[in-house]
């Protein structure tokens, strides 16, 4: 659909672009990225024919751009520029209708019939019909941006060139606009070439990205290839980290702010543990990076407060209301439920070389009727819900979080086996809660082996001790 070949040039002998070549297929949503001043707008101007290159050429549908008459070109390429002020005296409908100019063949030709329908459709698609009789200067920046998009769509182009189309739009309109553009590329074969400053939006929506750096192409490829941590750090000269999008298989770049305040090293231990009849609670002075299976706050996140509530209800909504009653914010809290008396919880700190962990376990042990046993009162013990918390005083990687969860589970199962407790939850493990939370301060724990061993022995000992406490109570009751 569009071939850019060895394009070089700029303004009045001042060279901006240097030997830029790439192709865009019909129906692609193609993003142009690059730092301020890297030449993105200059490239778009050359593709639209607004600026002549010094060298190289642009082929539109295999024909040189320069060989098109301007009206002929306007039927193929529409441009949504950064907002200009000349059109502010038009009404919305008039501004959108300007998009039909290229399709009118004679002087004073009536716009009605087909043109009228297309203008209406363009206004509907961009949600501006309700403002159609308002003047452009009576609209907000985002509303105006949508009118310009409607104007470009009314042109019924095959290629749409956009310079930061989401500028001025709130997140809901950003999503709506890009969803719509994506749909048109897929359903109508519209080709969209768009400049983006937001690399994450570009990664979410574009089929391919071109990264410009100082007027030259750094890479043209799929988003996952283009958005490599080191590449983006070098080109944009900033600190970022790459993360997968939580819902769709696309990369996202996370800005890493300068740490203006130095975070004091923190050790979570017995001093932070509060036990009452209603709940066991740990409130950390700083948020801890947490991975857990819990009733509230499950998954990965940063949390301040960790509670294990004594409750008969196991309903997320009720736990949430309970936390609010206690003055805790559910969005900062990881919440679990247990039916045991909370004084039967077992907790202990364990020390490795230069780091420590703090483990808290609640186990619910029940007597189970065993018809096969002849001896009455023999204790056939079955485990109910077991909640295991492991606090790591140190800095660990995502891999270490996963390994820690696995090791904590292995240690729990081993302790149950050694205490002759049948783990009915092996078949129903969703009721168990496991949590690994790291302070992410102090030492970086690179030695997965020594961390793993400490977690294993810590969880093993705490699970056994919690079972013993629970068993003693049962025998005494
Ligand atoms: N009309 C002009 N005359 C002279 N130089 C210009 C003109 N327009 C842009 N430039 C220069 O060309 C270079 C590239 O500008 P361009 O607008 O293409 O960058 P950009 O990547 O779109 O930047 P931004 O992200 O800031 O919009 C800049 O150094 C700019 O100062």
Automatic annotation (TrEMBL):
GO terms for molecular function: ATP binding; ATP hydrolysis activity. It holds the Pfam family CbiZ. Keywords: ATP-binding, Nucleotide-binding, Translocase, Transport. Residues 2-239 form the ABC transporter domain. The keyword Metal-binding does not apply. SUPFAM superfamilies: P-loop containing nucleoside triphosphate hydrolases (SSF52540). PANTHER family: HEMIN IMPORT ATP-BINDING PROTEIN HMUV (PTHR42794:SF1). This is ATP-binding cassette domain-containing protein. It comes from Lederbergia citrea.
């Amino acid at each position: 659909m569009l071939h850019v070949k060895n394009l070089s040039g700029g303004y009045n002998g001042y060279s901006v672009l240097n030997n830029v070549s790439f192709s865009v297929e019909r129906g692609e949503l193609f993003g142009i990225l690059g730092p301020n001043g890297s030449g993105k707008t200059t490239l778009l101007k050359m593709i639209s024919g607004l600026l002549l290159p010094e060298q190289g050429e642009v082929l539109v549908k295999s024909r040189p751009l320069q060989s098109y008459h301007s009206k002929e070109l306007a039927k193929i390429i529409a441009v949504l520029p950064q907002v200009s002020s000349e059109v502010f005296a038009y009404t919305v409908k008039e501004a959108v209708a300007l998009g039909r100019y290229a399709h009118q063949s004679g002087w004073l030709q009536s716009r009605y019939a087909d043109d009228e329908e297309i203008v209406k459709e363009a206004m509907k698609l961009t949600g501006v019909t309700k403002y159609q009789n308002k003047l452009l200067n009576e609209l907000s920046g985002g509303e105006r941006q949508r009118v310009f998009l409607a104007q470009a769509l009314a042109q019924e182009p095959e290629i749409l060139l956009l310079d930061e189309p989401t500028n001025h739009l709130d997140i809901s309109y950003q999503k709506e606009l890009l969803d719509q553009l994506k749909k048109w590329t897929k359903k109508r074969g519209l080709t969209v070439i768009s400049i983006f400053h937001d690399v994450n939006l570009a990664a979410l929506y574009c089929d391919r990205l071109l990264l410009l750096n100082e007027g030259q192409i750094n890479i043209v490829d799929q988003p996952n290839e283009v958005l490599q941590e080191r590449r983006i750090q070098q080109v944009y000269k900033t600190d970022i980290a790459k993360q997968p999008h939580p819902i769709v298989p696309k990369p996202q770049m996370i800005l890493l702010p300068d740490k203006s305040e130095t975070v004091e090293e923190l050790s979570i231990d017995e001093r932070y543990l509060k036990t009452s009849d209603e709940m066991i609670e740990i409130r950390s002075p700083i948020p801890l990076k947490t991975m857990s299976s819990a009733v509230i706050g499950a998954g990965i996140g940063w949390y301040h407060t960790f509670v294990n509530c004594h409750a008969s209800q196991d309903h997320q909504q009720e736990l949430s209301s309970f936390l609010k009653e206690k003055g805790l914010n559910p969005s900062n809290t990881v919440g679990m439920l247990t039916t045991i008396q909370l004084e039967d919880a077992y907790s202990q700190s364990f020390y490795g070389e230069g780091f420590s962990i703090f483990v808290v376990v609640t186990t619910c042990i029940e007597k189970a009727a065993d018809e096969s046993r002849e001896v009455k009162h023999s204790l056939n013990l079955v485990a109910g819900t077991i909640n295991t918390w492991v606090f790591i005083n140190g800095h660990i990687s995502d891999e270490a979080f996963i390994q820690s969860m696995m090791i904590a589970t292995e240690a729990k199962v081993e302790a149950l086996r050694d205490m002759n407790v049948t783990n009915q939850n092996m078949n129903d493990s969703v009721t168990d809660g496991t949590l690994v939370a790291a302070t992410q301060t102090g030492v970086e724990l690179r030695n997965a082996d020594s961390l793993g061993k400490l977690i294993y022995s810590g969880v093993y000992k705490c699970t056994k001790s919690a079972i013993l406490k629970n068993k003693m109570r049962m025998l005494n009751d």
